[in-house]
Amino acid sequence: MRATALFAAALAVTLTLVGQSPAVADEGTPIFAENVIRTADVAVPNYPLHFPDGSTGTLKDYAGEVLVVTLWQENCPWCIKEMPGLDRLSAAMKGEGIRVMALGLDQNMAQITGFLDRYELANIDPVMDYEKVNGTLFSLELFGRPSIATPTSFIIDKQGKVVARIWGLVDWDGDAARGFLRSLVLQG
Fold this sequence. Notes:
Elements: H1 3-17, E1 36-43, E2 49-50, E3 56-57, E4 66-72, H2 77-93, E5 98-104, H3 109-118, E6 125-128, H4 133-143, E7 152-156, E8 161-167, H5 175-186
Parallel strand pairs: 4-5, 5-6
Antiparallel strand pairs: 1-8, 2-3, 4-7, 7-8
Helix pairs in contact: 1-5
């Protein structure tokens, strides 16, 4: 067993023993940061997303992987600040069953990929929601309103359920965030 898997298992056991298991936390409970809130396991939307190669798919295509999906825009100063941390998270967790996706709300794929290239963010999967349907559904289901501020992120488990919503910045470099993601990978 790799050291990272051992760390994740130890963290999950420790959190459970002290009564703070994020996997079983009640809806509305902060998980590993105050703005990372447990959701009621809402299913991911099944509306099309667009990829740089011209293909389409949905978030349901990623069943079996833990996803961190960030809704962002090129002109959002907080997004610019958070994206390097997400890129480092993705690089550090490659091969562990965790994927980081940048769900761009900008008007064209060239803006999204241009932004990622300009800031040398090569480890994040660029995706576009042309119709902004996925972002709107996430917002209605998890926030009760038709629009969201950026950055807003969602953590999706291997079964395609949104298990956490995040409004604003998170320390993706910290052990707490990475331990939580690894605990989701270990949940079968």
